[in-house]
């Protein structure tokens, strides 16, 4: 018997035994549902009965739960066995399976490449007949009011559709849609929970299998938006209350969105809202696949579990079909091979089909079904999905970005496939970012914004590097803020500065008016873009829902950021008129103070840190301060300023030539850098080489890094030692994980600048002082 025949034989026997548990009855007896719901009542009444015939839904687990409250539970259990006929009473260790699980098993096996003939048996034929009668020929409608009813019905409709059943009644889908609308109307699309997430995955899968699914396009779009919103706003790992494996909701999402992209391509869904939705679907889909790959153990398993490994292999088998995974297909196939090898070799006790563990919430026969499906699907031919997606992962610019990131200390030891995967994820964000690129600042007389392409890459790479998995919405908000910060820097230097040349105090007044909402009738060329920028930051929904402290803090820091640009313009003008051989001979401040104030504020790091604090406040701890104690607030500020100072030093290290060309003040221009030796032989009149100045600046940056690391450790220690609830401590741990990602992103930009300057260059026209493209 060949390998395929062996798998088919195992699957047929598995389904036959599982369905045989109920004999010819596929539907669950309603009394069993009642018995399950009232298990505790049944146990309590045991004491008053001389004998008892236990229903299948009362288990030893129920007695164990009851025993925690009643010491006499165990003797009572013994008495039941004693008084039973021939003392042969037995109590199940776990619940019997439900028909919903059997449906899940059949759907999984059929999706993986099995066909009905592979699984056919008298038991299966009888079960399908009962199912078809219930949802086809019978006039009885599904009972409303059960919380899981619509999800279960969706599974059964999906199964009948996969079997190409002619019994599927035309109004069955309408009933499911009506029930879905009753449970979750369009007005509640933002109301999310784990159960509704999985339920809506099943509903959408059923809708997409329907031949005339375009009839339900508004509902398809609405459910897809709901699923996207749920994924995008979930911080960390996504969990499902009905299954303890973290990969189970990933599997549902990957199946659903893969089918959605396939269906959308076949039906040419290309209107603007759906196109934006398609981009968000691709992002969520790729993230689920990538995070699955990142979770695989060295032995090929996921968490050493047959169940989780089966989910992992099934997810990656779906990932093979996606056009945008092309550049990591080799690793996907390798991961699948290792996972299948584990599934074939692993030995795990499988209890008789039909026993559901209350601890794991997954029946052994269902685990076995997923295992067989994973092995089958791994070798099943694939049908490509989303072929219209244009893969940019192999173009010259993208490859250059990958090589640049690999040269940084942060990523020098990260596997190439992982960096490439983060790059693919970043490219998926580009359409959304491109739509916002020129909405705030006009980019006139500028070179190409080469930073624009690398910004999403820095966030996805750092998010995946330590498996932070911050919410997708947070990543997107920070990507947008990052390119706006670059544009604000360009705008203040190339537009606002020249417009207020010789009258920078008026520019300060303009900025002040923007923050107090005073009318302004002056320079609209400067006022309007800055107004849009400030509005984008301060009226962001996440900022508005943050704590009053965090909301006010980001406003202060944003004001300081813009004022620092005005001061920097003044310093640039003063430097241009007083420099001697590249030295700022009439500096108004010491380098030490300047780099920690004007220069650090100018980097945008402090206000960006305040902004991400608002995102954390509004998501992880709604209504609470991101840093709730005095000590946390102080250490967070100290951490931020060390980070900003270090970032400025790295930035200046990499931009010496650009600043020299554009006449901008750089750290190495301060008088202190004219003496870089401890020997008395070097005087201020000595000509110190540019490389020596840069080396000194780099040494200062490393000094700041050591202080930064110390402060971060103290902040983490403050959280670890504090007395708080487990839930609040979990939020605090997630906060620190996100902040470490923020530090990594900021640090990464500095490391990139050490290798190569990525800012846009401008050149002053010597005739009129205007900026133009560098020739």
UniProtKB/TrEMBL annotation:
Keyword Coiled coil: yes
Key words, A-Z: Coiled coil
Family assignment from sequence similarity: Belongs to the terpene synthase family.
Gene Ontology biological process terms, A to Z: diterpenoid biosynthetic process
Name of the featured protein: Uncharacterized protein
PANTHER family in the record: (E,E)-GERANYLLINALOOL SYNTHASE, ENT-COPALYL DIPHOSPHATE SYNTHASE, CHLOROPLASTIC
Coiled-coil blocks: 698-725
InterPro entries hit by this protein: Terpene_synthase-like
Organism lineage string: Eukaryota, Fungi, Dikarya, Ascomycota, Pezizomycotina
GO molecular function, one term: terpene synthase activity
Organism: Xylaria flabelliformis
């Amino acid at each position: 018997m060949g390998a395929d025949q062996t798998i088919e034989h195992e699957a047929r026997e598995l389904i036959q035994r599982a369905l045989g548990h109920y004999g010819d009855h596929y539907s669950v007896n309603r009394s069993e549902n009642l018995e399950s719901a009232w298990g505790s009542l049944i146990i309590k009444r045991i004491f008053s009965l001389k004998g008892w015939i236990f229903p299948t839904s009362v288990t030893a687990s129920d007695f164990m739960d009851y025993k925690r409250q009643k010491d006499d539970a165990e003797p009572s259990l013994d008495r039941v066995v004693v008084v039973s006929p021939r003392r042969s009473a037995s109590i199940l260790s776990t619940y019997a399976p439900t028909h919903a699980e059997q449906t899940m098993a059949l759907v999984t096996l059929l999706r993986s490449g099995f066909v009905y003939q592979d699984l056919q048996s008298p038991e299966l034929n009888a079960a399908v007949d009962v199912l078809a009668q219930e949802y086809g020929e019978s006039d009885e409608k599904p009972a409303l009011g059960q919380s899981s009813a619509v999800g279960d019905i969706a599974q059964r409709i999906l199964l009948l559709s996969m079997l190409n059943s002619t019994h599927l009644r035309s109004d069955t889908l309408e009933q499911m849609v009506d029930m879905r609308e009753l449970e979750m109307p369009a007005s509640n699309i933002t109301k999310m929970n784990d159960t509704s997430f999985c339920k809506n995955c099943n509903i959408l899968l059923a809708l997409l299998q329907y031949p005339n699914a375009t009839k339900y396009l508004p509902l398809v779009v609405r459910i897809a938006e709901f699923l996207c919103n749920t994924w995008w706003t979930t911080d960390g790992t996504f969990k499902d209350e009905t299954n303890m494996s973290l990969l189970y909701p990933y599997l549902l999402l990957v199946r659903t969105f893969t089918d959605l992209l396939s269906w959308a391509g076949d039906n040419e869904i290309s209107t603007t809202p759906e196109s934006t939705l398609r981009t968000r679907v691709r992002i969520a889909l790729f993230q689920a696949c990538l995070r699955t790959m990142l979770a695989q153990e060295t032995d090929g398993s996921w968490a050493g579990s047959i169940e989780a490994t089966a989910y992992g292999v099934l997810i990656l088998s779906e990932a093979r079909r996606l056009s945008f995974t092309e550049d990591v297909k080799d690793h996907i196939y390798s991961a699948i091979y290792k996972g299948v090898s584990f599934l074939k070799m692993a030995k795990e006790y499988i209890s008789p089909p039909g026993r559901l563990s209350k601890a794991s919430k997954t029946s052994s026969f269902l685990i076995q079904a997923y295992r067989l499906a994973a092995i089958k699907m791994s070798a099943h031919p694939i049908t490509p999905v989303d072929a219209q997606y244009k893969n940019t992962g192999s173009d010259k610019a993208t490859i250059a970005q990958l090589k640049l990131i690999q040269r940084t200390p942060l990523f020098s030891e990260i596997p190439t496939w992982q960096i490439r995967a983060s790059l693919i994820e970043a490219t998926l964000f580009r359409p959304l970012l491109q739509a916002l690129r020129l909405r705030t600042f006009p980019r006139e007389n500028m070179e190409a914004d080469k930073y624009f392409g690398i910004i999403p890459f820095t966030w996805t790479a750092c998010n995946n590097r330590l498996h932070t998995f911050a919410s997708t919405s947070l990543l997107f908000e920070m990507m947008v803020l990052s390119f706006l910060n670059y544009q604000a820097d360009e705008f203040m230097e190339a537009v606002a500065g020249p417009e207020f040349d010789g009258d920078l105090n008026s520019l300060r007044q303009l900025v002040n008016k923007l923050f107090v909402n005073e009318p302004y009738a002056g320079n609209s060329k400067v006022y309007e873009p800055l107004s849009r920028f400030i509005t984008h930051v301060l009226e962001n929904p996440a900022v508005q829902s943050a704590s009053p402290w965090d909301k006010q803090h980001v406003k202060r820091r944003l004001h300081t950021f813009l004022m620092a640009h005005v001061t920097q313009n003044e310093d640039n003008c003063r430097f241009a008129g007083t420099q001697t051989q590249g030295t700022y001979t009439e500096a108004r401040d010491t380098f030490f103070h300047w780099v920690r104030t004007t220069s650090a504020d100018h980097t945008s790091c402090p206000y960006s840190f305040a902004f991400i604090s608002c995102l954390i406040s509004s998501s992880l701890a709604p209504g609470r301060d991101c840093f709730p104690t005095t000590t946390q607030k102080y250490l967070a500020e100290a951490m931020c300023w060390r980070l900003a100072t270090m970032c400025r030093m790295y930035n200046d290290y990499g931009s010496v030539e650009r600043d020299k060309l554009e006449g901008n003040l750089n750290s190495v221009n301060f008088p202190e850098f004219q003496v870089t030796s401890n020997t008395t032989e070097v005087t201020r009149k000595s000509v110190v080489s540019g490389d020596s100045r840069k080396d000194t600046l780099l040494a200062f940056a490393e000094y700041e890094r050591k202080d930064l690391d110390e402060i971060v450790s103290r902040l983490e220690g403050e959280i670890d030692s504090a007395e708080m609830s487990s839930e609040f401590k979990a939020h605090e741990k997630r906060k620190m994980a996100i902040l470490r990602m923020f530090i990594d992103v900021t640090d990464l930009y500095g490391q990139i600048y050490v290798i190569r300057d990525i800012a846009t260059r401008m050149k002053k026209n010597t005739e009129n002082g205007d900026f133009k493209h560098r020739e």
